[in-house]
């Protein structure tokens, strides 16, 4: 009788322990999935990530899409860093186009991987304009008259005003997003945000890619940042590199491919 009670007691303890393991280890494993932070580039806003964000959320990832002010790498990195600082656990930081310069200037120990999507990846002291050097990397169509300038209100500037660049309505579809439908291009144009001209020539700070594993998705049909420039940057930072037959906006025209690259980076965290 005593032996039977002993066996039952041991079984109860084991069952309770097993239940504790299931209740605690399972959620803990789920929580180890990194949060994905998607940083948009110039001539776009957070909606440019909508399809990629939906795909990643469908895979179980927490996704955050902060506003990028488009004022300059240092200013914008500080703004996005506030979002990153509010996230507990590992982070995969993703930048599209000019957003790559922003994530390059973010230094947070929770950031375990960087993903560049047709993006600038400057070295210390370099401006993003260096990667648009038409002698080394010909092919960009981001030139006047497609590229226009305007004076805008800017509270980040001591003068309260700034000179911004934007893509002319007539050129937006052809230059920026030639592989999306007319309707999608019209929606993207409606969400276009201008970029401070000074952001193109501001020297970048110490690069986060020098100490953080990086992935790079080259857009092989890009007419904004030439593919040759993208391959050069990807090689210099030692990124895991892949290519997609897409324009500058693969995140809109081929979101599943972009999401796959991000998920690959996340799986290594």
From TrEMBL:
It is an enzyme of class 3 (hydrolase). Residues 36-261 form the AB hydrolase-1 domain. One of its GO terms (molecular function) is trans-permethrin hydrolase activity. Residues 1-30 form the signal peptide. Its EC number is 3.1.1.88. InterPro entries: AB_hydrolase_1, AB_hydrolase_fold, Sec-Metab_Biosynth_Hydrolase. Keywords: Hydrolase, Signal. This is Pyrethroid hydrolase. The gene is pytH_3.
